[in-house]
């Protein structure tokens, strides 16, 4: 998704924080998507459905228990989401009954929450392409910040728009995510950036000390070794991962109003399908690769530590791994893999402030309701109890010890990782996620 505008030089340095930005390095993230699915016959009863993963996982019912569970495993910081479509059912009229109990639960358990203001979904009847969208979102952000401040005492921590890059691709080019556009990715990205900037300004009017966390996927795209002529296209696509941050920071498309101080804390989202071999979309079927995924064992796979270092050196902002995880029994191996990549990045000088397991509880697949076994805890029973996945809990405790030892001794410990298990899980997750987005499963 190329942009024709040139970069402009801006100040890319901020004074280092006096202490940790978050209450704990280890975090848990709650899946909180609220988007609408496309009206495709292949989705069956899910066609056109409004998702609400906070309700589907019963996290809204059991927020207090869920936050308390985080505290029990040393996680005092969480990622969570407000549900715009429930709060603003009529323009500029707000009902915070869905949010206040969660804020109170966070306050009672002393859990610091980074609240997503827009996690893929917005109120029905609101045209995301119009100027009114930006104004509505800014006013909503201001109102939410006020309620957070009132219920918790602050400071306010928010992610204005979660994964602008992903929404721009899925909703502006690929057409499987709302607003289901095709060929409008750059336009959607610019609009979401406008909204994010307006929200930042609004939140800081309420709480000048608010921390703004921008969560974006980090990716690596390799050129096909059999077609080196496609290397420039692969690199251009790879570089596009930085466009949202560059726009918010005023380095790209300065007419959008971006400024360097709007880039506060950068959250990087990384999963097993975030690396692949580039393929020209116009290639005939005979030339297409059956599988272009780059799992960890692939010789073209890029170490995550290098990806983290690239982001840090580009922006010189504090980072945290805002989302990472995998499904099935590979969960402990994935955490070990990411844990050692995080330690290596920190040892190389990256200001890494946190690592968030996401999602921290199992959830139903977007388009097929399949049980995604990806969390530290499973589905809730009617009393709010969730069964813990002991192998992941044991690995988490081990990784916490290694992280603290590195902070104390300044030595990065590297351990063996079951790469074959990660490769297999990466392929299975990629297939399942694609199916969940596009077809119905009976």
How would you characterize the overall build of this protein?
With 442 residues, the protein is α/β, with parallel strands linked by helices. The protein has a single domain, classed as TIM Barrel, CATH 3.20.20.80. It contains 13 helices and 14 strands. The strands form four sheets. Strands 1-2-3-4-5-7-9-10 form an eight-stranded parallel β-barrel, surrounded by five helices. Strands 6-8 form a two-stranded parallel ribbon. Strands 11-12 form a two-stranded antiparallel ribbon. Helix 2 packs parallel to helix 4, helix 6 packs antiparallel against helix 7 and helix 11 runs parallel beside helix 12.
Compact overview of the structure:
By secondary structure, the chain is of the alpha/beta class.
N-to-C SSE string, H for helix and E for strand? EHHEHHEHEHHEEHHEEHEHEEEEEHH
Which second-level CATH architecture applies? Alpha-Beta Barrel
The tally of domains stands at: 1
Strand order, biggest sheet? 1-2-3-4-5-7-9-10
Given the helix and strand composition, which structural class is it?
alpha/beta
Report the average pLDDT across residues. 92
**Tally of DSSP helical segments:** 13
Provide the CATH top-level class.
Alpha Beta
Give the overall form. globular
CATH superfamily: Glycosidases
Which fold does the CATH topology refer to?
Answer: TIM Barrel
Unreliably modeled segments:
12-16
Notable traits:
442 residues, alpha/beta, TIM Barrel, eight-stranded parallel barrel, two-stranded parallel ribbon, 14 strands, 37% helix
Q: What are the SSEs and their pairings?
A:
Elements: E1 26-29, H1 53-56, H2 63-72, E2 77-81, H3 84-87, H4 100-109, E3 112-118, H5 131-152, E4 157-161, H6 164-172, H7 185-206, E5 211-217, E6 220-222, H8 231-239, H9 243-248, E7 265-269, E8 275-277, H10 304-315, E9 319-324, H11 331-347, E10 352-357, E11 363-364, E12 371-372, E13 377-380, E14 386-388, H12 390-409, H13 419-438
Parallel strand pairs: 1-2, 1-10, 2-3, 3-4, 4-5, 5-7, 6-8, 7-9, 9-10
Antiparallel strand pairs: 11-12, 13-14
Helix pairs in contact: 2-4, 4-5, 5-7, 6-7, 10-11, 11-12
């Amino acid at each position: 998704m190329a942009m024709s505008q040139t970069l402009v030089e801006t100040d890319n340095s901020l004074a280092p924080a006096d202490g940790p930005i978050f209450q704990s390095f280890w975090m848990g993230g709650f899946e909180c998507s609220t988007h609408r699915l496309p009206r495709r016959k292949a989705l069956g009863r899910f066609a056109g459905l409004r998702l609400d993963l906070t309700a589907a996982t019963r996290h809204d019912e059991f927020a207090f228990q869920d936050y308390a569970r985080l505290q029990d495993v040393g996680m005092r910081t969480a990622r969570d989401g407000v549900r715009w479509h429930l709060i603003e059912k009529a323009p500029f009229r707000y009902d915070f009954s869905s949010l206040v109990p969660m804020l109170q639960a966070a306050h009672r358990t002393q859990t610091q929450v980074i609240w997503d203001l827009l996690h893929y979904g917005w109120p029905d009847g609101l045209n995301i392409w119009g100027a009114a969208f930006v104004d509505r979102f800014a006013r909503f952000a201001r109102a939410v910040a006020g309620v957070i401040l009132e219920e918790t005492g602050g400071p306010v921590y928010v992610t204005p728009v979660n994964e602008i890059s992903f929404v721009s691709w899925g909703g502006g080019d690929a057409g499987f995510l709302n607003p289901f556009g095709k060929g409008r990715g750059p336009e959607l990205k610019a609009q979401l950036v406008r909204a994010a900037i307006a929200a930042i300004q609004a939140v800081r009017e309420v709480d000048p000390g608010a921390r703004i966390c921008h969560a974006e996927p980090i990716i690596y795209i390799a050129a096909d070794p059999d077609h080196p002529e496609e290397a420039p296209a692969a690199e251009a696509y790879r570089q596009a991962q930085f466009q949202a941050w560059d726009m918010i920071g005023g380095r790209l498309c300065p007419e959008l109003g971006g400024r360097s101080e709007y880039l506060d804390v950068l959250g990087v989202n990384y999963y097993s399908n975030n690396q692949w071999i580039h393929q020209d979309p116009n290639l005939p079927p005979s030339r297409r690769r059956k599988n272009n995924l780059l799992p960890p064992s692939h010789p073209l796979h890029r170490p995550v530590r290098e990806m983290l270092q690239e982001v840090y050196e580009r922006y010189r902002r504090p980072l945290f791994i805002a989302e990472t995880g995998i499904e099935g029994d590979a969960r402990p191996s994935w955490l070990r893999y990411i844990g050692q990549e995080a330690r290596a990045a920190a040892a190389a000088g990256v200001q890494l402030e946190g690592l968030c397991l996401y999602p921290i509880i199992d959830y139903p697949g977007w388009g097929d309701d399949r049980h995604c076994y990806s969390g530290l805890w499973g589905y809730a029973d009617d009393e709010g109890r969730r069964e813990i996945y002991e192998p992941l809990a044991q690995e988490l405790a081990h990784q916490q010890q290694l992280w603290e030892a590195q902070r104390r001794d300044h030595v990065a410990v590297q351990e063996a990782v079951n790469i074959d298990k990660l490769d297999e899980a990466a392929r299975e997750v990629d297939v399942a996620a694609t199916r969940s987005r596009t077809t119905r499963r009976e």
